[in-house]
């Protein structure tokens, strides 16, 4: 009986040479970064198509999070620009340590992202119009606002005033950088005061809020634009929904803290698709200049 079982039931172990027979050493892996997956609809997106579509999902129009490199590429004519104040780096005035020393965290973030801090600033042209852009990078310690972020924005505003060039701020941040404590919070007042000087000089300021814009950034320069615009679906708020719910002891409305909700309640002027952003910004600049 055992012998009968062996001969009649073990045949499925036999391997026949059918179908794909590529040798292991001949197999080719897809290059890293060739494909992305949309966080919203989960469909595969080819990197070249995604770049051509301004990093917006071609299927559901979800705006993927991108940094200063991509925004400069999308906005500046021929991706030509002069970076401003590129070598500013954070100190460690409080000798702060949480799970690791702040200095170690900075070094790791610089190595991982290739950035000096959570913001880059540049001067270039957008449809022939001069523009100074300061853009935050969420990949650098959550886009947190520390002393370098505040200083770069302040110097960019000074540059705009000196050269009489409109200023665009692209915000993408988790809020103030706790490792710098009061030094971080001081940047709220500092940047707001500089924007008041920009206004007195009658130079346009456009604020672009992207996903996410929260905390002290929302409570300062992000909401002070002559025109406040946002990308579709962006999270915009001060405190997180859970904190607010626990504070007011009520359920929050549907869509709370989305760009669409904020627009409906009067804190934004426009929501603009990234694919139309460059043309729209150029129109705003020409309109405000005149």
TrEMBL record:
Matching InterPro entries:
AcCoA_carboxyl_beta, Acetyl_CoA_COase_Trfase_b_su, ClpP/crotonase-like_dom_sf, COA_CT_N, Znf-ACC
Which organism encodes this protein?
A: Pedobacter nyackensis
- Xref: Gene3D superfamilies: 2-enoyl-CoA Hydratase, Chain A, domain 1
Please provide, in alphabetical order, the Gene Ontology terms of the cellular component aspect for this entry: acetyl-CoA carboxylase complex
What lineage, starting at the top, does this entry show?
Bacteria, Pseudomonadati, Bacteroidota, Sphingobacteriia, Sphingobacteriales
Q: What is this protein called?
A: Acetyl-coenzyme A carboxylase carboxyl transferase subunit beta
Annotated compartments: Cytoplasm
Mostly located where? cytoplasm
What Pfam families does the annotation carry?
Carboxyl_trans (PF01039), Zn_ribbon_ACC (PF17848)
State which pathway it belongs to: Lipid metabolism; malonyl-CoA biosynthesis; malonyl-CoA from acetyl-CoA: step 1/1
Enzyme class per UniProt: transferase
Report the catalytic activity. Answer: N(6)-carboxybiotinyl-L-lysyl-[protein] + acetyl-CoA = N(6)-biotinyl-L-lysyl-[protein] + malonyl-CoA
| Similarity comment text for this entry | Belongs to the AccD/PCCB family.
Residues given in the record as Zn(2+) binding sites: 38, 41, 57, 60
How does this chain assemble?
Acetyl-CoA carboxylase is a heterohexamer composed of biotin carboxyl carrier protein (AccB), biotin carboxylase (AccC) and two subunits each of ACCase subunit alpha (AccA) and ACCase subunit beta (AccD).
- UniProt function note: Component of the acetyl coenzyme A carboxylase (ACC) complex. Biotin carboxylase (BC) catalyzes the carboxylation of biotin on its carrier protein (BCCP) and then the CO(2) group is transferred by the transcarboxylase to acetyl-CoA to form malonyl-CoA.
Q: Could you tell me what the cofactor note in this record states?
A: Binds 1 zinc ion per subunit.
Under Enzyme Commission nomenclature, its number is 2.1.3.15
| All copies of domain CoA carboxyltransferase N-terminal, residue ranges | 34-290
- Tell me its cofactors: Zn(2+)
Question: Where along the sequence do coiled-coil regions lie?
Answer: none
Keywords, A to Z, come to: ATP-binding, Cytoplasm, Fatty acid biosynthesis, Fatty acid metabolism, Lipid biosynthesis, Lipid metabolism, Metal-binding, Nucleotide-binding, Transferase, Zinc, Zinc-finger
Q: Which GO terms describe its biological process?
A: fatty acid biosynthetic process; malonyl-CoA biosynthetic process
GO molecular function annotation: acetyl-CoA carboxylase activity; ATP binding; carboxyl- or carbamoyltransferase activity; zinc ion binding
């Amino acid at each position: 009986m055992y012998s009968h079982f062996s001969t009649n039931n073990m045949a499925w172990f036999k391997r026949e040479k059918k179908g794909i027979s590529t040798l292991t050493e001949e197999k080719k892996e897809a290059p890293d970064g060739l494909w992305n997956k949309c966080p919203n609809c989960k469909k595969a997106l080819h990197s070249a198509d995604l770049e051509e579509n301004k990093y917006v999902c071609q299927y559901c129009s979800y705006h993927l999070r991108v940094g200063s490199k991509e925004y400069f590429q999308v906005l500046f004519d021929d991706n030509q620009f002069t970076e401003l104040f590129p070598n500013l780096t954070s100190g460690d005035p409080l000798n702060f340590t949480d799970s690791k020393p702040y200095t170690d965290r900075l070094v790791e973030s610089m190595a991982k992202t290739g950035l000096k801090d959570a913001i880059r600033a540049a001067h270039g042209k957008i449809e022939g119009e001069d523009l100074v852009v300061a853009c935050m990078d969420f990949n650098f310690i959550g886009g947190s606002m520390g002393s370098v972020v505040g200083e770069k924005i302040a110097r960019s505003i000074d540059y705009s005033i000196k050269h009489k060039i409109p200023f665009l701020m692209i915000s993408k941040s988790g809020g103030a950088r706790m490792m710098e404590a009061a030094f971080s919070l001081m940047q709220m007042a500092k940047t707001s005061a500089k924007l008041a000087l920009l206004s007195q000089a009658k130079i346009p300021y456009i604020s672009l809020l992207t996903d996410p814009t929260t905390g002290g950034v929302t409570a300062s320069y992000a909401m002070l634009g002559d025109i406040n615009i946002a990308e579709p679906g962006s999270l915009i708020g001060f405190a997180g929904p859970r904190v607010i719910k626990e504070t007011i002891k009520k359920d929050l409305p549907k869509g709370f803290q989305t760009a669409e909700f904020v627009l409906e309640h009067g804190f934004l002027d426009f929501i603009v698709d990234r694919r139309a952003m460059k043309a729209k910004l150029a129109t705003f600049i020409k309109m405000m200049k005149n």
